[in-house]
Amino acid sequence: MVPPNPYDQEQMARYLATDPTESDSLIWTLDLELTPIYAIAPRGTFARDVYQRLVQVLASQVAAPTDDSFVERLSLPGYLTDEKVQLYSGQVVPVIEVRNVRALYSWNVNVLVRNALQALQARDPAADAEAVHRSLGSFLNRVYFDLRNLGFASPDRALNYAATNAFQSTLSWSVTITTAS
User: Fold this and answer.
1) Distance CA 49, CA 99 (A)
2) How many CB atoms lie within 10 A of CB 102?
3) Is the pLDDT confidence value at 44 over 50?
4) What angle do CA 77, 79, 81 make, to 5 degrees?
5) What does pTM read for this prediction?
6) Using alpha carbons only, what angle is made at residue 9 by residues 144 and 46, rounded to the nearest 5 degrees?
7) Model confidence at 175: pLDDT above 70
């Protein structure tokens, strides 16, 4: 029997699903194109909830990209601390302290576009679904790529919020349409 590989995200997600208390033994990182940029440090009263949500996100990141549960984007509310953490690679990254799961969102652009399209079609059944899907998907991916930043300055955080707000808007559209039916 080969021992589990801690660098394999699928194996780690399966392991943490069976023993979630181990989640606080890890150094969680927020990566940008496979490069760790922050270490995530859940703290305070809701630390256990934050760890639980991080485990869920990890499991969703290893899902197939065509699966609705697949996660490709994450918003992480937190405070940049003066702390630094050295990773096993030797890289040193700053620590983000996360005290609550509120505003910790994860989403998939394809599901986001599909939800927005469903909301549009409920209001305008004649809308060209294929063209809207292509255009909106392209627009969102461009926004996410062109406007990404580390969130150090207030204007950067405002841009990050605006990108996250697109996701939140489709949630409210779906709720509005569901309750209106």
Assistant:
1) 9
2) 9
3) yes
4) 150
5) 0.77
6) 75
7) no
The CA distances from residue 154 to 19, 37, 77, 121, 161, in Å, are: 38, 18, 13, 36, 10
Query: Quick one: CA dihedral 71, 73, 76, 81, positive or negative?
Result: positive
- Tokens at residue 6, please? 């801690």
Q: What is the mean pLDDT of the chain?
A: 83
Tell me the HSE value of 53 on the side-chain side, using a 13 A CA sphere. 22
Indicate the length of the chain as a whole number.
181
Q: What is the pLDDT of residue 179?
A: 39
Asked whether 78 and 44 are in contact (CB, 8 A), the reply is no
Look up tokens 């005290």; give the residue.
Answer: 99
Region 111-135: mean pLDDT is 84
Residue 7 binned pLDDT confidence (cut-offs 50, 70, 90)? confident
Ordered by start, the domain boundaries in the chain are: 1-106, 108-181
Query: Rounded CA gap, 181 and 28, in Å?
Result: 42
| Contacts of 68 by beta carbon, 8 Å cutoff, 6+ apart | 108, 111
